[in-house]
Amino acid sequence: MQKALSCFSAVLLLSACTDAMKTEHVRNLNSDCPSVDSHISMLEKEKKENNTRVASGVGSVMPVAAVANLLNGSYGTNFEIATGEWGKAVDAKLQELYLLREQCRAAGFNS
């Protein structure tokens, strides 16, 4: 019973995480001084919206949405969100961008 409940919970979580930026796009996001602030804002917003999607969707999404995610190609991203890989990629990229922003400001670039 517990295994079935765990599988059901995973399906709900996977189906609730639609429309998130793909992990590979997060990792490959290149930034420079003129764009660093907008990229930080974008990733912070993406992370917040994803947390909201997961929180509001888990209780209300039907398992049939997981099949739809397979068909529309978002299953991989949803799986990475459910396993925490997506969040780790976003956090790592944000740390990289925060450091770049500090370096840009130290060099006199104000965006």
Structure write-up:
The chain is mainly alpha-helical. It has one domain (2-106). Helix content is 74%, strand content 0%. Helix 1 packs across helix 4 and helix 1 (2-16) crosses helix 5 (75-83). The longest helix has 22 residues, at 36-57.
- Approximate shape: elongated
Let me know the largest β-sheet: none
Low-confidence stretches: 4-18
Number of domains: 1
Distance between the termini: 55 Å
Instruction: Give me the Rg, rounded.
Output: 17 Å
What structural class is derived from the secondary structure elements? mainly alpha
> What is the number of beta strands?
0
Order of helices and strands: HHHHHH
The residue-averaged pLDDT reads: 73
Measured as a percent range, the helix fraction is over 70%
Query: Beta-strand percentage?
Result: under 5%
Tally of contiguous helical segments:
6
Write a brief structural summary:
It contains six helices and no strands. By secondary structure, the protein is an all-alpha fold.
